[in-house]
Design goal:
Helices cover about 30% and strands about 35% of the residues. It is built from two helices and six strands. The strands form two sheets. The chain has a four-stranded mixed β-sheet, with helices on one face. A hairpin with a 2-residue loop joins strand 5 and strand 6. It holds the Pfam family IGPD. It comes from marine metagenome.
């Protein structure tokens, strides 16, 4: 059974369409209008092997907050919807990951 989901989220400030495939290959097509947010979501997709297709339009002429927040909500809803029974997902974990000149610790 494929673990895929689509979510659309429309508010006064944003219009977001998101699609994930948890059992993907890390392919992505992401356009939020915010360069750094695109980059971070691309890294999430690539390193988790989750396919992500996302298009977000927001009031970035005012600030980046609404688009960033609503994108996170849409991706979270997609992942929850696609996960169904949460097979293969651990509740607790930790990692130390060196990348470039940083060491990231996640718990």
């Amino acid at each position: 059974m494929a673990r895929k989901a689509k979510v659309s989220r429309k508010t006064k400030e944003t219009n977001i369409s998101a699609e994930v495939n948890i059992d993907g290959k890390g392919k992505y097509k992401i356009d939020t209008g915010i360069g750094f947010l695109n980059h971070m979501l691309e890294q999430l997709s690539r390193h988790s092997s989750i396919d992500i297709n996302l298009k977000a339009k927001g009031d970035t002429h005012i600030d980046l907050h609404h688009t960033t927040e609503d994108t996170g909500i849409a991706i979270g809803e997609c992942l929850k919807k696609a996960s169904k029974k949460f097979i293969g997902i651990k509740r607790y974990a930790h990692a130390l990951i060196p990348m470039d000149e940083t060491l990231t610790r996640v718990a």
